[in-house]
Design brief:
Pfam families: Asp_Glu_race. One of its GO terms (molecular function) is amino-acid racemase activity. The protein has 231 residues and is an alpha/beta fold. It has two domains: 9-100 and 216-225, Rossmann fold, CATH 3.40.50.1860; 101-213, Rossmann fold (3-Layer(aba) Sandwich). Helices cover 37% and strands 14% of the residues. The radius of gyration is 17 Å and the shape is globular.
Length: 231
Amino acid sequence: MTNETGARLGILMLDTRFPRILGDVGHAGSWDFPVRYAVVPGATPEAIVCDDIEPFVQAFIAAGRDLIAEGCTGIATTCGFLALIRPRLAEALGVPVAASALEQAGQIAACLPPGQRVGILTISAATLSPAHLHAAGVPEGSPVVGMEGSGFARTILGNLPDLDVAQARAEMVQAAQRLVEAHADVGAILLECTNMVPYATNIAAATGRPVHSIHSYLNWFHAGLLPPRFD
């Protein structure tokens, strides 16, 4: 298949039916450049976030190879928990892989003033394990707050067809406020979940902290895949 759009970034999608609103990594309008998508059958949010990821590794690799065959020169995913398999994806695919927003944590931390650290907002603190954090290179001791019990988490993890955007926005802001109130030394917030991006502006306004996400990460990643021309 030809890459008629000229897309260099290929994005591996979970198998979802929840709304992907503007800002969500899975909404093509969220990007200022063309992207290509490939859905990994059966890889639902609950399966990847809450269950065993191993049965899906080969399916992610196969979908990634399809995107590369279509002209993509870099691969990303739509779930921060996939940091756990990024090394295997990169080895099998032979191209750069940006699997998780968490992978930028070290770079963000290096930009902060002394005495400040990165705080992480995740869809599920209960299942975001030390192994996930280590695989992504998250600095040890980075505080984590989850969205357990929220309508947002129920919609995304339950793969439900309707999303109350106003409620999700309020829940996200409240969780971020809990994060900075409990950890006053948090100098920047990192959104693990790719579906949190539409609320980043609200979180930044409510907390007074910079907010990083898969959107900021993939804009940086894509800039390397297709550098801008200035001539």
